[in-house]
Amino acid sequence: MDWMMVLKAFVTGGLICVICQLLIDYTRMTPARILVLLVTLGVFLTAVGVYKPLVDFAGAGATVPLLGFGYSLAVGVEKSVAENGLLGAFTGGVTQTSGGIAVAIFLGFVCALLAKSKDKS
């Protein structure tokens, strides 16, 4: 195991989380808006060529947070557009992230089966 890569991933992922916590604590942004901001920022940083070096440096520390989801969407679109033209702009992101989306849906379903629903009043 490469302990230096583990340390870089931990520090990078931790810094991303610190930035998000600061947004929650010191702005009036809702968590949903912060999530959208992170995904959009991941796409933007990938488009301008900044996020790929961060992924190469930190590995999972940069690909696991929501910024990494935006990065995966952008990489999928870029790859699919190169292969399929304009149609790839609509299909590439979903194709690239389909595994993560499927796991999220499945685990959400399992949690819904195991949890007891309660009345909020």
The largest β sheet comes out as: none
- The class by helix and strand makeup works out as mainly alpha
Radius of gyration: 17 Å
Shape: globular
Termini, distance in Å?
Answer: 50 Å
What value does the average pLDDT take? 92
Strand content: under 5%
Q: What is the total tally of β strands?
A: 0
Number of helices: 6
Please mark out the parts with pLDDT under 50 across 5 or more consecutive residues, or reply none: none
Tally of structural domains: 1
Helix content class: over 70%
Order of helices and strands: HHHHHH
Topology:
Blueprint (H helix, E strand, L loop, with lengths): L2 H24 L4 H17 L3 H8 L1 H4 L2 H19 L3 H27 L7
Helix pairs in contact: 2-5, 5-6
Question: What do these coordinates show?
Answer:
This protein is 82% helix and 0% strand. It has 121 residues and is mainly α. It has one domain (3-114). The longest helix is centred in the last third of the chain and has 27 residues, at 88-114. The model has no long low-confidence stretch (mean pLDDT 92).
